[in-house]
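Lab notebook: predicted structure, single chain.

Context: the supervisor wants predicted structures on file for every construct in the current expression panel, including those that have not yet been purified. This is the next one on the list. No modifications to the sequence; it matches the entry in the shared construct table.
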Amino acid sequence: MRRFVAILAMCSLMSWSAVAQVGEVGIGVGTSNFLGDLGKKSSSFKSYFGDIDGSLFRPAVQVYYRHSFSYRFATKLSLSYGRLEGDDRLSRTKEFRDDAWFRSYRNLSFKSFVLEAAVTAEFNILKYAPGSMKYRWTPYVFGGVGIFAFDPKAEYNGEWVRLQPLGTEGQGLPNYPERRKYALIQPSLPVGIGFKFNINKAWSVGLEMGHRITFTDYLDDVSTNYVSYGDFSSYYGSERAIMAYELSRRSPELDPEGKYGTITQPGEVRGNPESNDSYLFTMVSVTYNFNKMNRREHNPFAKKDTGKYRRVFR
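Prediction complete. Output recorded below exactly as produced.
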């Protein structure tokens, strides 16, 4: 059994060592943006880029390690940080009581940081090798898994208030046992496209656009229906109940006389729970290839000499 295990281990080592692999480290700077219930131009997904509000792009940064296994495949471990914002006041109002009008009248807004750790697999469309002047550029596609943290806030009386602890849609309140407070750490599925180009044998630059699929509709703290002041006051003290209620229903700020107040009464639609929120990262990056032995025009993924392992099988 020990001999079998030793042989199996050596076979694994040989298969790992048979191909030279290239490691890189890099940093990216760019933007982050949000797609969800707030500030959205349209409830339809027919126009993806048309639904992204350019005024809400916020700075983002990323650090990463990339490991290339062949001309076609690489894996990437990344840590990214950005800001997400949404604001109903940016909705385009065209007709009375159309979708954009309802969003504008709802008058909700939020901001949040987003911190993401992800592992993705990259597939190069063309042959590419870090440091190579022959195979020096390629577009690529990627996909993977990630985990991210966020914490939506809204401005109230000149201060930014955390929304998740308030349960603005009844989460955590006795009258809504089916509505649990959403977790502030969630999984994600990063997918996207990119481009890599070797400047020389040590440095390369890139551009990457990535969409993050999430499993929550609460990046912006908006998903289901309005709840009443009584629901908050029965559980919170009066001051906290007033704050929670006023942050959950902000249309009176635009309509103090309540002319259209029935639109935002308890039980009325506040968000769309049928589609989850998502966010984007767009990065321009600089990458350093620290494997000096692979900075050559010759194939950096060439097979190595495995003759020194042959004695194991004699």
